[in-house]
Amino acid sequence: MNSALPEGYFKRPNVARVQDHLDGGTDNYAPDRDFARDLVAAAPWLPGSVRINRAHGPRVLNCLTREYSIDQVIDLGCGLSHDNNRDVPDEVRRMVYVDSDPGVDAHARMVLAERHGTVSLRADLEDMTVLLAAGPIARIDRGRPIGVLLHDVLPWLGDDTAHTVLAVLRSWLPAGSVLSVTHATTDMAPEAMAALTRLYEAAGIGFLPRSGPQIRDLLRSWTPLAAGGPVATASWRRSTPLHPRFDHSHAYAILASPGDRIS
Ligand SMILES: C[S@@+](CC[C@H](N)C(=O)[O-])C[C@H]1O[C@@H](n2cnc3c(N)ncnc32)[C@H](O)[C@@H]1O
């Protein structure tokens, strides 16, 4: 992919930078912060939701390494994870950060790829053939299980693309692999979610939070792993789920395996 930044790149809100601002990061600009202010006015719980989602990443990585002995992970739609590397367990020997955003890729190359075994790839989930053929992914050992993160990425993809991404991944991943998904949902605060969708749309950004049944439908060919969800992200693997009043995820977390396949 061309690494040049598109015209006006810093002058309009950008999903990764808005998330970064909501998460307390500094890789963002005035248009991102102004837009984030409008989002928070419509959904005051949004910064909490973003932080719960971010905190979920390290929890899942620990689960993948310790419970599934996975040591190679692909983070699809990785975003501007300002302190991700500190949270990557030492057991992860190969980590591939993938995002279509040129700024995210530049950031990952500078900041994240310092860690041994970590590489960044700019690629678009709209074209899985190109993405999977790219060097950093092609060098992953498909003779062993692979962990794949799709955290807060599917809501930024239309239904057809989301279905294709999941179908291609399912047939590409070796047995024993694990997929982790988080997905914003309309189940928990439908009116605020609708307001967020309208604000993103007005900014030219497609945002598609889905209902629980719609998310289940996306993953219908996958095998849910025990206690893997879907549950509200903040309540994932808690012996006592949080009361909805204290669970500001507004998203579901799911852990799934590609399951049995006819090859
Ligand atoms: C909300 S951020 C989530 C970041 C991170 N996964 C997390 O959980 O905090 C969504 C990310 O998905 C990326 N993204 C959206 N559409 C994409 C696509 N078609 N291909 C690759 N990345 C995409 C965006 O650039 C952005 O960095």
Question: Care to describe what's here?
Answer:
- It is a single chain.
- This protein has 263 residues and is of the alpha/beta class.
- The chain has a single domain (46-257), classed as Vaccinia Virus protein VP39 (Rossmann fold), CATH 3.40.50.
- Helices cover 37% and strands 15% of the residues.
- It has helices spanning 15-22, 30-42, 46-68, 102-110, 128-133, 135-138, 159-172, 190-202, 212-218; strands spanning 72-76, 94-99, 118-122, 147-151, 178-184, 223-224, 231-232, 251-257.
- The longest helix has 23 residues, at 46-68.
- The two termini are 31 Å apart.
- The structure holds S-adenosylmethionine.
List keywords for this structure.
alpha/beta; binds S-adenosylmethionine; 263 residues; single chain; 9 helices; 37% helix; Rossmann fold; eight-stranded mixed beta sheet
Helix content: 25-40%
Radius of gyration over all CA atoms, rounded:
17 Å
SSE arrangement, N to C: HHHEEHEHHEHEHHEEE
- Principal-axes geometry comes out as globular
Strand percentage = 5-15%
DSSP strand tally: 8
Q: Give a list of the ligands.
A: S-adenosylmethionine
Supply the helix-strand structural class: alpha/beta
CATH architecture: 3-Layer(aba) Sandwich
The H-level CATH homologous superfamily, spelled out, is: Vaccinia Virus protein VP39
Short description:
This protein has about 260 residues and is an alpha/beta fold. Helices cover about 35% and strands about 15% of the residues. The longest helix has 23 residues, at about 45-70.
